[in-house]
Amino acid sequence: MSERTGQVEGPIRVLLADDQHLVRTGFRVILEVEDDIEVVGEAADGERAVSMARATRPDVVLMDVQMPVLDGLAATGRITAECGPDGPAVLVLTTFDRDDYLFAALRAGASGFLLKNGTPEDLIDAVRVVARGDGLIAPALTRRVIAAFAQPGGLGRRPAGPPPAALTQREYEVLELLARGGSNAEIATALHLGEATVKTHVSRVLAKLGLRDRVQAVIFAYEQGIVQPGG
């Protein structure tokens, strides 16, 4: 597996975690049609998902929220804590459009959150997005996330890491634009840089702040007051 902000070498290795066999089969059929995606295992409960994530070293874990033994949110927290920054990106999927699930998934370290009523193309795109180190939240949920950041205390627990003063001025500018939703191409245009240079800056920002991916960088920026909703 490559760094979370880099490209995965070879096919994207995916672990499926869902307590419904038919759902796992459907995900496998959708994903394995793609030449650049490989399903490396299936787990029917959260505890099994954690152990298989350690054993199979996937690039992405597709994680259902409601599962037996250990729920998907707790399993996400275990995986991100035990596997560290170079561990798999967790993409949480659920049929329940609930804010508490969304915010709990982000606090647990998930790199993306999708509703199961999306299309197969949505799922395939999401796997590719989180595998290359970009965070992903379904567009319909983005406004609610920003509103939550505006509330006192934001999403709660801050990601561990040194203060923003650890960043250079250029890295600080990259973090600010990233937190406003800028893609690498958009950040490059705004700062008159090449995309490869922006990727390097993003990698350094994540490393210096001890963050897993761009989703955590956005949370960090809002909680630290680097950007303000609507600003």
From TrEMBL:
Residues 13-131 form the Response regulatory domain. Residues 160-225 form the HTH luxR-type domain. SMART domains: HTH_LUXR, REC. The modification 4-aspartylphosphate is found at residue 64. This is Two component transcriptional regulator, LuxR family. GO terms for molecular function: DNA binding. CDD domains: LuxR_C_like, REC_NarL-like.
